[in-house]
Design brief:
Blueprint (H helix, E strand, L loop, with lengths): L2 E5 L3 H13 L3 E5 L2 H8 L6 E5 L7 H11 L4 E5 L4 H9 L4 E4 L4 H18 L6 E3 L2 E4 L4 E4 L2 E3 L3 H12 L5 E2 H9 L8 H16 L5 E5 L3 E5 L1
Parallel strand pairs: 1-2, 1-3, 3-4, 4-5
Antiparallel strand pairs: 6-7, 7-8, 8-9, 10-12, 11-12
Helix pairs in contact: 1-5, 6-7, 6-8
Length: about 220
């Protein structure tokens, strides 16, 4: 079963997460600081990280940046800082999901399962998709625009890949939420809007010709 490392300076939170994940047969290792985690990374790696933002010393955002520089492994943030700025910054730095405290352990478990399910799907490679100056490679989970790779998070790639699989077809926000975040996701459709905004900015900066357009009052589509 998958190995998950949890970094949180609150012992009760660490123990709560451990109990729920171990009930589902995940192997869990907990740490109370970024320093402890970095020491452990010298000898082994998990399959997923769950990080608190407000850590002593090096905070969770800086820790996420360090992890992303070296490893392509999923990261879920859990934090008492639920402001939009922190949520968006965490996702931009490479986090795959964000859960504000206090949170439901069941919801955290569902998000963990959804991420692993998407990764398993990605292990069954499909053909590359090419739209004008964009190349999407599902095997490498990469997006190339004008011969430059776009730095997408896991969620951003999954959403963009879904839209690209049916070009010019409008997807409702609710459908995107269900497909990418899962049927049991209890968050708002704002998660879709935030993710689309980041994708749109990244591909525009590279000069993409196909546009990620808004279908007003409904959702989004990849207009090729």
């Amino acid at each position: 079963m998958a190995v998950i490392w949890v970094v949180d300076d609150e012992e009760n939170i660490r123990n709560l997460i451990r109990r729920y994940l171990e009930k589902e047969d995940y192997t869990v290792r907990t740490f109370n600081s970024a320093e402890e985690l970095n020491n452990a990374l010298v000898s082994s790696l998990p399959d997923m990280f769950i990080l608190d933002i407000m850590l002593p010393g090096v905070d969770g955002l800086a820790l996420c940046r360090t992890i992303r520089e070296n490893y392509d492994l999923p990261i879920i943030f859990v934090s008492a800082r639920g402001e939009e700025f922190d949520r968006v910054l965490g996702l931009e730095l490479g986090g795959d999901d964000y859960l504000a405290k206090p949170f439901s352990p069941r919801e955290l478990l569902i998000r963990v399962k959804n991420i692993f399910r998407r990764l398993q799907t990605a292990d069954n490679p499909e053909k590359k998709m090419v739209f004008k100056n964009i190349i999407i490679d599902p095997e490498k989970r990469s997006v190339i625009v004008n011969n430059e790779e776009v730095n997408f998070t896991g969620k951003e790639f999954d959403l963009f890949y879904l839209l690209a699989g049916s070009p010019n077809r409008p997807f409702s926000r609710q459908l995107l939420l269900e497909k990418i975040w899962g049927f049991d996701y209890e968050g708002a459709e704002r998660a879709v809007d935030d993710t689309v905004k980041r994708i749109r900015k990244k591909i525009r900066e590279k000069g993409a010709l196909p546009a990620l357009t808004t279908v007003w009052g409904y959702g989004y589509k990849l207009d090729v």
